[in-house]
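Weekly modeling sync, notes
Attendees: S.R. (lead), two postdocs, one rotation student

Agenda item 3: backlog of single-chain predictions. S.R. asked that every request posted to the team notebook include the full sequence so nobody has to chase files. The rotation student volunteered to paste the first one in as an example of the format we agreed on. Action items at the bottom.

Example entry:
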Amino acid sequence: MKVTVIGAGNMGGAIIRGLIANGPVAAGDITAVAVHDTTLNAMRSLGAQATTDARSAVQNADVVILAVKPWLTEGVARQIASAIPQHTLIGSVAAGITLNELGTWLGNDRYLFRIMPNTAVTVSAGMTFITSRNATPEQIQSMTSLFESLGMVMEIPEKQFDGGMALASCGIAYALRYVRAAMEGGIELGIPPRMAQTILAQTLKGAAEILLRTGNHPEIEIDKVTTPGGITIRGLNAMEANGFTHAVIEGLKASK
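Predicted structure, as returned to the notebook:
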């Protein structure tokens, strides 16, 4: 499979690195399109091909991923549309760009994918959402398999993309803001900052693994550590009294 990624910045570069590191595509079968020499050289150092010529880069591609900024997507899509083979799967990771827009720019008969990874793909622990138009189940599986090398993939209706982005993409920032706040609390409790960060990161990782492996509702796991009259329930009640759940819900609603 030959994959072309147009835009090798933060997200595009992370996708390329993940594909190479985790093996679903050979480095030599990946072409990165970028405008800056430093980016091109970084991609070449990974073994990928690199070029500034987007039209030539897509001519033999089985999969094309548009990873440019949202405001650049239309121009790039229109530029390459006539050069993309009819069999090629075309995906966009640009936030807010719909399948209808991709169809207008690239052709409504194309195999189109809207893809929303989060920044955890940089450590192969991403949460990626995929939806498609015109694609067969086999084609959907092909695109899904690429992104499974970068973490978890979930196929969802396009109407759920805004909510998914709030939970997973914005959610990275929200989780890290909790870590920052908890670090400050830990410092008040006498824990050095770097130690507190390590403790919290491992604790969040453990909490996430519990949910992923068991499938349990969070409240089941919360009950296991909230002894009647104990310190955990006092802490939870204090957080709720200060608006914890309300703040999280309102923050997510504001992210749409």
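Discussion: group reviewed the output briefly. The CA atoms of residues 42 and 141 lie 29 Å apart.
Action items: rotation student to repeat for the remaining queue; S.R. to check formatting next week.
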